[in-house]
Design goal:
By secondary structure, the protein is of the alpha+beta class. The protein has helices at about 5-15, 25-40, 90-100, 140-150, 160-185, 185-195, 205-245, 245-255, 265-280, 345-355, and strands at about 50-55, 65-70, 75-80, 105-110, 115-120, 135, 290-295, 300, 305-315, 320-325, 330-335.
């Protein structure tokens, strides 16, 4: 079983037992110890995984870290654990203190689902304020799994991890900056771009107008890029399928109504699909959101499962665009929209539906 399978197993266990995981110890046993084992460490060998390692801080004696990964007799990774419902933002200072008085090069703060990885990139032996890697097992990405593999016992190399930690840290922070700017652009950013296309005096009133234009332009640009890549991928997939599985594909087309010649997937449907993916990526990986076109509507599904509909796009009549959102009883409520951009208005409703599925 590979690391991804182990992680899915841990998440599945949490989903089935979370009501019973009311203490830190329960969280350790059910979620965190299996995670350490998934990284190849023997949790029953104190020379490899040492529980409750002493981390005395000055005159304060008896301080202990939950787990320490040991290599050549010295701690290399400290793991501070919390109950799975705990907010990790309230506990990073504790790990920082332990890190300072140990020889460990990495610190992990976790509640069994969220894992934050720290090191000392800024000042030697002083744990950085922000983690260089942060993951949530419930929506882990393949790129994050590859980073986790570097912490596996068979791969663990301090120099190799440190060489990528700096890049991971600053790339993550840059993405956070981009996300904030795209959601609520700063006046400096609006002025920077606005003055490149507007020849007049950039007054506060003009800046306010460009604030709205900037958000729409960014959303439109991202939608176009995703749409172009999606279309290219679909075309490539069609070519490969036609070359390698002509008979199987022909049989599939006979059974699959999505391939009905009466079905035409419009650009508006593709644009709306990309917008929905962009909104929902805050909660799940984009590949979890799929599109399945039909004669009367285009369905947006979770996990490509028609029993897990997110919404329906009724876009056959471009003069009467409607988005259909299904409630918990399976009844569809349709909302009229004047253009594809107005799909953004239903972000909260769509995110709530996806959160029910996960």
């Amino acid at each position: 079983m590979d690391l991804k399978d182990y992680i899915y197993q841990i998440v599945s266990r949490w989903d089935k037992t979370k009501e019973s995981l009311t203490t830190e110890e329960a969280t350790k046993n059910a979620l965190i110890m299996p995670f350490i084992m998934a990284l190849g460490y023997d949790i029953f060998n104190p020379n490899e995984v040492l529980p409750e390692m002493t981390c005395d801080i000055g005159t304060k004696k008896g301080e202990r870290i939950d787990y320490a990964i040991i290599q050549n007799g010295d701690p290399v990774i400290l793991i501070e654990c919390k109950q799975w419902e705990q907010n990790l933002n309230l506990h990073d200072n504790q790990l920082l203190r332990y890190f300072t008085v140990s020889k460990a090069k990495f610190g992990i703060l976790t509640n069994g689902l969220q894992y934050r990885f720290y090191t000392d990139l800024i000042k030697p032996n002083i744990m950085d304020e922000k983690p260089f890697l942060e993951i949530d097992l419930r929506k882990i990405k393949d790129t994050q799994i590859e980073e986790l593999k570097k912490f596996h016992k068979s791969n663990f190399n301090i120099d190799n991890i440190l060489s990528s930690a700096s890049e991971l840290k600053y790339m993550g922070q840059l993405k956070e900056v981009f996300a904030k700017e795209f959601e609520e652009p700063t006046p400096e950013l609006i002025k920077y771009f606005g003055k490149q296309v507007y020849d007049g005096v950039f007054t506060p009133k003009i800046a306010e107008q460009f604030n709205t234009l900037f958000k729409r332009a960014i959303a439109s640009y991202i939608s176009e890029q995703v749409s172009n890549r999606l279309n290219a991928a679909l075309k490539q997939n069609d070519v490969e399928s036609a070359e390698t599985q002509p008979e199987a594909e022909a049989a599939k087309q006979e059974d699959n109504c999505d391939n009905d010649s009466r079905i035409i997937t419009t650009q508006e449907e593709i644009d709306a699909f990309n917008i929905i993916r962009a909104m929902l990526r805050k909660d799940v990986a984009v590949e979890k959101i799929t599109m399945r076109d039909a004669i009367s509507y285009c369905a947006i599904l979770f996990d490509d499962n028609n029993r897990k509909p997110i919404c329906r796009l009724h876009f056959n009549n471009t003069n009467n665009l409607r988005i259909g959102i299904l409630n918990e009883d399976g009844k569809e409520e349709r909302f009229a929209i004047s253009n594809v951009d107005e799909v953004y208005n239903y972000e909260e409703k769509l995110r709530a539906i996806v959160k029910r599925y996960i």
